[in-house]
Each structure stands twice: as C-alpha cells, then as structure tokens.
Amino acid sequence: MPRKLLPKQISTFIQTQTNIRLSIEAFISSPTPHPISTYRSLLQNLASHGELNQVDTVLSHMRQCHTDPSSHEPAYVASMRGYSRGARLQDAVDVFERMPLYDCEPSVVSYNVIMNALVDHGYFDQAHKVYMRMLDKGITADTCTHTVRIKAFCLTGRPHTAMRLLRNMAERGCAVSAVTYCTVVCGFYEVGFVSDARQVFAEMLNWGLFPDLVDFNKVLHVLCKKGDVSRLNEAVNLLENMHKSMTPDVTTYNTVINGLCKELRVSEAAKYLPKMFNSGCFPDSFTYNIIIDGYCKKGMVQDACELLKDAVFRGFVPDNVTYGSLINGLCEEGDFKRAVEFLNKSQANGFTPDIFMYNSLIKGLCRQGLVLQALEVLHAMPDSGCTPDIHTYNIVINGLCKMGNVTDAIVVLNDCLVQGSDPEDAYQLFLKLRKEERGFSPSLNTYNILINAYCCKLNLSMAEKVLSEMMQNGFSPDAYTYHVLIDGTCKTGTVEKAYQYLITMVDSGFVPTMVTFGRVINSLCVNGRREEAVSVIQTMVQKGWVPAVVSTILSTDKREIAAPKILVEELMKKGHITYHSYEVLFEGVRDIKVNRKRSGRLTCV
User: Which GO terms label this protein's molecular function in UniProt (predicted)?
Assistant: First the structure.
C-alpha cells in the first residue's frame, strides 16, 4: 500500500514542480484539506508559469475550505506578487482591496507587497497614499516598508531624501539591510552623485553589511548602463574588489563585459573570459555574443572568428545574433564571400537569417557598387522566410540611383509597396527619390500602388493627397485608381465621396465591377440614401452593365421594371449587396419612372 504524502511534502512538490498540470493534479487529488502553505505554493507556481487566470479559482477554493479568514493572508500575498510580476497590477490591487471584504485585514506584509508593486509600475503617488492609509490604521512600518519608500524616492530622482530616511530608520527601531543601502547607492549613481554613492557603499561595508549577488549586480547594472566612462571604471573596480567578499556569477561578469563592449573596450572585456573559467563561472551565449559583436564593431573580425572557434570548442552553439554580428563585420571589411558563407552556415544549422543579416549584406554589397548582387539577395529573401523591410528597399534603391539606374529603382519601389511595407515609409522614400534623383519619373502604376496602400490602411487623406499630386504631374486616374478609392471611402463610411468617385468613374468612361457597384450601393442604403442607390441601378441597366441573366430580358423589357428588379436580385444572390440593401432597392425600383425624375445625379451618358 503506497504511503500517503504529508501536506508539507505535497506543498514542496507543488512548489518545485516545473509541470504546472502535475501541480494542479497533486493539489486536486489530495484526500486531506490543504494548509495555507500549499495554497501559497500553488499560487506561486501558477504565477511563475504565467497561469494567472487560475488565481481567482484557487483563492475561492481556499475561502471555501478554510473557515479562518485571518489565516488567508499568505495566499493573498502570493497572488498579489504574482499579478504584479505578470504586469497585471490592477488585479493585484483588487486582491488587496477585497481582503477586508473576506474578513482578512491586511498586515504590514500585505501593505509592503502592494506598495512595492505600485512603485515598480511607476505609481508613486498611489504608493504613498497606501502608506498613509497603513499609518492611519495604526500599523507600524517595518524595514521592508522603509526600503520600498526609499526605492520610490530613488526612482523619482530624490536620493538625498532617501538617504535621510535611511538615517532615520535606526531611530524608528528598524534594522537597515544591505538591500536598503544598495537601493540608495543605485539612486545616487543614477543621478550622477558618484562621491555620495561611494560614501554610502563604504558606510554599508563598515557596518558589516555585505550585499548579496543580486543587489551587487543591480549596482553594477546602474554603473554600466549609461555608458559613462568614469562609472564604467567604477564598476570594473567594484568587480575586481568583489572577489574578497563573494564570488561573481555570470550575470556579474556579463554586466561589466557588456558595459566595456559598448565603449569598444573589447580587449579589456575579453580578458574576463579566462577569469570566469578560473573561478568556475562559465560564459553563456550572451557573454560570447557581446564580445564577438564588440570585436566586429571595432573592425577586429579575425579576433571575433578566433573567439568563435574557441567558444564552439567549449560547447557554445552560435545563434542568429552571432551570425548577424559576423556578417555585419565581414561586410564592413568588404569580405562578402565569407559573409555569404556565414549566411549559408546559419541556414545549414537550422537558423532562418533575420532582417539584420540581410540588410548588413545588402548594404555592404551596395557600398562596394555590387548592386546587381544586392538585388539578387533582395529577391532571394522571401524564399528564405525573411520579408524585406523599408530599410532593405531604401538601401537597394539608393544603390541603383547611384548607378544611374533610376528605372530599376522605380521597379523596386513598386515592389516595396506591393509587399505591404508601411505606406508612410514608402511615401517618404518616394519623395526622397523625387527630390534627389533628376531621372526619377514615377509611373501611374507607382501612384496607384501608393494610393492603394493608404486606402488599405484607411488613411484616405493621404490617399487623396497622392491622387492630387498624381494629377498635378499629368496622370489621370484609371479604373484601378477609382476602384481602390471607392473601396477605401466605403470602408471609412465617407459615402458621399464614394458616390462622387463612382459618378466620376462612369463619366470618365470606365466600367466599374459588380463588386464596386455593390459597395457603393450598400453604403448608400445604410446611410438612408435610397434615391441615389436606385439611380445606380438605373445607370447599370441603361448602360447594359449587368450580369448575363439580366441582359437577356433587356430587349423585351424596354428597360422599364423587370430588368432593375432582376438586377437587384442577382446582386444579392452573388453577395454584392446585403439583404437590407435588397429590401431598400426592391421598393425603390417599383416605379422606375418616378425614380428617374427624382434622381438627376447619375444619368445615362
């Protein structure tokens, strides 16, 4: 007979289980009621796996099974933390606010958690209001409370205020921790008070308080992220002296290495690799990638390749970031043969080359005047699963124009629009070509593609702006132009413009499609403009622009009543008009003669 698991064992299993389903199954299958610690463990596991939608269910289950509401706080605290880390702050606030409704008064722990959540999400005023409410309730602030407030002061650029609070903590009976000190140190570094930061850090050490790796890494991150040389040197000094009190981890090294590489101090950064190995801390993909990228940016591609060989020997598997850095570096040096080799190698290793790799290769080819090869790469991109972006097209078009090949530049611009690039980006590229290239002469097709792109984005004002510019340059709209404009105006509900475009299209001698007629008719009917909708039907009959089934009765019907009614029925059967439009039109065409007298807008030409 299998031995039953104790509640503590179930709680430990749930907390350490990486499979969330097994955690839930273990929770449900337990024959005995769960202690609050098990609920807390399950909530923590749900949060770590992003299963926050299950939190309310677990809390409801807890309230049903545990009759002592005052014992529920650890579960509420776990759910608030989970919601906050999952970027669902409002849910965390809701849990906190509802605690008294379930007869569980928040203690200082709950107040600290919700204040910290508010501060982490930038709601500093609300966090202060919660703090004042806590004091009004007679709850005494503890070390964690003051640390959260200190963090809020530092994040709002007030480290000196934070320092005053730090000094007063002892008077209030609160022990000061290394976490609190490191928060103030980071606050001073953030706003540039380096000497104050050093003083506070030294004071912390003098008090015998040593930061753990997490807090130490936070200080290093603040020093390295802004690219200030003096701060970076400060970080390097901290790292060098760190070995006296603790062993750096990979995050520690990566933080400093990243800062050094951003300043192109790559050789200095690379010296930390043997130190990492000697201390038993092995570089990860970020470590290798950032140094390889640093070498490439500094023009030391050979060093990057040597490092890659050594890294692969030690078990490192190159990824898209690695290949992208090397391809960019090789292209900068003009070594396109090896760049293509790395591109092919990335594909052979199962990676899909990204837009950064292709743009680097195309840019390098164009810079060397190898624009035809760049065009070949551009055309091969979709087959490799990578869609060119506006920068890709910009590089190629500029390269073609420098060669004096403006005709192909226009073709590439058209392709850019057809492939779905943002019309605004494409339009700016279009304007740039018109301004800088004397031989650039856009075609009607180019304008039509731009107009269609804006209509697809429902940006009718820009579509009409391009239309106006097109006509000013001597081009008249064709059937396609009117088609996309009518489609766009119907979708945006600007029915008057859609109707006017249809009239102009007919007057210009173009034959709209049944789809175009249907869209205008539907828009007119929806907006209560029955007479205009009926006049469209009249024109279709009078012009003979009708389906075959309608044209067979035109000779005998003399275009009076039967043909319009059958046309309306056919349009609905084919899905060109809605049933509502059908009802409106069916009534309207019963007296064609009356409708003709009322409608003078669309007339047979």
Answer: mRNA binding
